[in-house]
Amino acid sequence: MYPSRFGYEAPKSIEEAIGYLTAGAGEAKILAGGQSLVPMLKLRFAAPEMLVDINSIPGLDYINIGADGSIRIGALVRHEDIERSEELKTAQPTLAAAAHLVADPIVRTRGTFVGSVCHADPQGDWAAAMTALGGHIVVQGPKGKREIAMKDFVLGPFQNALAFNEIAIEAVIPAPQGTPVGSYLKLERRVGDFATASVAVALNIQGGNVVRAGIALAGVGGRTIDATEAASVLVGKPLSEDSILAAAEAVAAAAEPRTDHRGSSDYKRQIVKTFVSRILTGIANSEQKVA
Ligand SMILES: Cc1cc2nc3c(=O)[nH]c(=O)nc-3n(C[C@H](O)[C@H](O)[C@H](O)COP(=O)(O)OP(=O)(O)OC[C@H]3O[C@@H](n4cnc5c(N)ncnc54)[C@H](O)[C@@H]3O)c2cc1C
Question: Were both Cys, which of 94, 169, 198, 270 would link to 202 (CB 3.0–4.6 Å)?
């Protein structure tokens, strides 16, 4: 199917882009990598009057890792930039583990990290990783910049907290307390598919104790599931068989899977429990080797 007719602008600055969005009064949409928006246009799930293509705006393709370990990812950083970043492999294990599991190599060359978070797909890998990491999104609109915590950013399926004339300019992962450890596991029917169920785990470990535990899920609910409260059973002590089991059970209980062509809800919940346990056991084993 062909998309509905739309206008197209390629602004050279964020301010110019905001001007087009404001003039569009809710009928204009940002085009980043186009890997979700273009299919939606073709299926006529979206029919904006105007596309505001941000790809010509300079200076949005950075990955900055601060001396304190905080990470800033600009709006035009592609999935493959995350996958190829040697710095991120050591600085942020959860992102590094997820990067090669997002879509397929062709999609990863164009699709952007921030665009994926903005798309707020319940099966989206980056929204789950950012939620587990306790990150936030910096957005800019006519009145300037503001920060939106990930827990407030995804409002529901394909719904984010941006006003119609705001642009997400960067994703920020705060500095870890202690050592950041974590991983990402995803069950997909075939390589490149969306998640049947996936689990993002991001822990901070200091003096052998877990000082922060973030866990989030994709594919097992009508939106990204923030299971950080369930993960709090891990905080204040070292990882142990008991705490891992308690966390795996609590996180699986926080999932809201539905039976569909990818599997039954019971099956998906079991996958979540297994993945949480597998990631945490892996971390515990490598912590023991370090100690
Ligand atoms: C074949 C295929 C397989 C896929 N598999 C997966 C998968 O396994 N896992 C996964 O997570 N995703 C998958 N996707 C989806 C895709 O990877 C991301 O959703 C996509 O890359 C989003 O980023 P984008 O830059 O392409 O955004 P676009 O498609 O350009 O935009 C998506 C939405 O976000 C908005 N937007 C984008 N950037 C901004 C911004 N800076 N500020 C405000 N709004 C913005 C747009 O207006 C639009 O509404 C797949 C896509 C395809 C085509």
Answer: 94
